[in-house]
Design goal:
Elements: H1 13-24, H2 50-59, H3 67-82, H4 86-98, E1 102-106, H5 112-125, E2 128-132, H6 139-145, E3 153-155, H7 163-171, E4 182-183, E5 220-222, E6 225-226, E7 248-249, H8 252-266, E8 270-273, H9 282-295, E9 300-305, H10 317-325, E10 328-336, H11 340-345, H12 352-365, E11 368-375, H13 382-395, E12 401-406, E13 409-410, H14 414-420, E14 430-431, E15 440-441, E16 443-444, H15 451-468
Parallel strand pairs: 1-2, 2-3, 5-8, 8-9, 9-10, 10-11, 11-12
Antiparallel strand pairs: 3-4, 6-7, 13-15, 14-16
Length: about 475
Amino acid sequence: MVDLNNFASFPTLAIGLLVAALRAEGHEVRLVSPLAHDVPSVLRERRETYLDHLKRRLHLSASPTFQWLRDGARRTHEWMTERPDATTLAEIRHEIDRGTDVILLSAYLQHYRLVREICRLARARGIRVILGGPMFNVFEIAEIWRKIPGLTALVGAEMDRGIGRLVEAAVAGEDLARFPGTVLPDGRRGPPASPLRDLDLTPMADYTDFPWDRYPVRIIPLMAGRGCQWDKCLFCSDVISVSGRTFRTRSVESVLVEMQEQARRHGTTNFVFLDLKLNSYPDMIRGIAAEAQRFVRGAEWIGTVHVDLRRDNGLSAKDLALAVEGGMRRISFGLESGSQRMLDLMNKGSSVEANAAFIRNAHAAGLSVRCTMFNGFPGETAEDMAATADFLEAHMDKLDRVRFNAFSLQTGTPIHRAVEARDIPDRALHPLSSVNERGRIDYAAPALGCRAYRRAKARALRTVYQINSRPLRIGARQFDGLM
């Protein structure tokens, strides 16, 4: 197996799950972790400098004067960050020389060029390559990736309990089209893969092969559930991904037992929950808060939530205070916009008032609060962006980090399907390209170029920089750069 993700702060959950499943069925597994060989790793966030602010301004610029510079900088950045790494390829050659039946890859869409090179190496040695990833269940994306020379099969399914049988069939030269979620190089497809049920039966991730000495803090990644209870945001690609389709939860006891065992194995009390929304099942976040210290003394943990409008969403002021007592140190949520009109257009299922109350309550409880946002969703106006700038200014003293991006039109999302069906006004968004290997469609949005919009966005970005340039709240600093 090759860990293409190469995270700077913790092991890759998907890799750990598959390694555990394969070893449980008697397979010999060797892991290539580029981080162990000093390959530069992925750090999601950090305390920002003014240069970071200028880069964001350029990246999000809609000014005709700077458009050519922005587009050129984006292409150069992608080319540099996505080029195949020579050290990783050398380690794969070394493992191939030791004797290998199958190379397993778990990839995000930015790994296309590296996957092509790995498949080229494997093809020259007659070794099978099975590639999986969160977005390979989307037809248009799978159609591009399946054509990589040297690929044996593409998998868009949760394989926690089926990877061993797939590997055995591949080694035996059997037809892999019988496996749910598979796509073969000739275009044949297996039956549709249903979301995995009864998550308590999935194996506990095996992280023993990861370079623990390279992580600045030992942090265990885990998931309490898969999918999202809301499941309706028009822009969201997570809920159409392999593991994001429909909400399913583990039992609270199963999660706590895993925390206890992983803490014993790796000598740490730090955890990051990678759930799309840790409060999709409110009793999960409450159960972890209530019992974590009994299972792991000194446990500290972080997670992402959805500030939705359910009567009980597990995020009341009392819930948040109890979460801090139970070891929660940082909380992240999708703010997206400070305009209620935009939240409604996105079908976000939240309100500006509820978001504001959540930020106040979480900060008062002692949590480090992080949010994600983006600009440019179809229909956004200068007034909407001004409302976002106002919101950020009003809450900047209670936010620790803001991740602010441009709207991305992702293949297969509800908003992409609406664009395909011409269900949004042409003036709101005009596609400029077709689906590419990254599952992204470039577009033009004329309204974003008006002077009033640009001024409001500049004000919002100044506030984002002021927030992100501050040190993280003291109690959460071991989790800096995460989420």
